[in-house]
Amino acid sequence: MSTNTFENINKKTVYGPVKSWRFGQSLGIDPLFQTSICSFDCIYCQLGKIQNLTIKRDVYVKTEQVLEDYREVIASNTIVDVITYSGSGEPTLALNLDEMIKGIGKLSPTIPQNILTNATTLHLPEVRKTLLSLDKVIVKLDGPTEQLMKTVNRPAEGVSFESIIEGIREFRKIYNGALEVQCMLMPLLEKDFEQFFEIMKSFNPNLVQFNTPSRPYPSSWHRENRGNHELIFDYKVNWLKELDKTDFEAMSKVFSEQTGLKVLIK
Ligand code: SF4
Fold it and tell me: N or C: which end of the chain has fewer CB within 10 A?
């Protein structure tokens, strides 16, 4: 039985599963839940304007609540191919993320666990240690400069571009799982694109995925926008300026040729 109803989307720390074009049935885990909480406030964020823009790590939702919601989903025989930590913002801001990963790993040792992170906490050794046990770590990087980060990702005070880059490099040195980089290719990036090549190569990622904004920017926060679903709910949204499809494909091709990295486009 699926739990993917509008009601459950809003009430639980575990949501979906949502169909992922790459991973199959992906069950989302939200380690933040109370409201949207992130160290970025990206201009394209599907959650809308971030309510709590912060770099502070804290316990935002109790581990037991997440495990209880998770047990309920598996008890209903829902098909789950992969677990993804993401939810209402930046999952590594949850101080108890480690407990959640271990708790879910004990309940479902054979289901792979992935995370989507903006890498703003990866300079912290304790965060790197927590992520080591995951099967796949997907980091976001939308450009090669502090200025671009400030324009596109609108970070919380205290976030430094250099420490993000260093954090990813340090993590790569110790991580044996699959490290992927996701980049939202926006018109703003075009003029700095070549600077991107060396930075990306230095991460030695298993894959780079280029996206364009596929969903509109909601005017306000709605919890049901967690997850990579295709639903558009009934409230005011703004569509973002996208790269022309030909430019998008051409940039991806140049990137792949110049870096030798495996590239996926969506
Ligand atoms: S990092 Fe992710 S959750 Fe945070 S604002 Fe950007 S898109 Fe939204």
Answer: N
